[in-house]
Amino acid sequence: METIEKLIQRVQKTQHGFLDIQKAADEVVAAHAAGESLRLARQLFASEKYQVRSLATFILGRLAARSKEVITFLKKRVSRDKDWRVQEILAKAFDRYVLTSATKTPSL
Description:
The protein contains six helices and no strands. It is mainly α.
């Protein structure tokens, strides 16, 4: 697993699109327990750089179906972010949450 500084350097290189940021988030979630991933996401979300906040938002999206705390953070903190790119990632996070939650709920 990369250090947090290396993650920040990596995602800050992204100027267009978000695929590498999404890949970095997947790597964080795969390499860490949910609690550690959440801790990292909270730390990353405090950044002034939109790419780093986008990484945090992707991580939170991966964790949302497992935690009401994460949903609350997305609703109360991420939804207030002023950057449209972070808002786009938030939309993707909620899409993933809905998809993941739907697969856990039996169909009627």
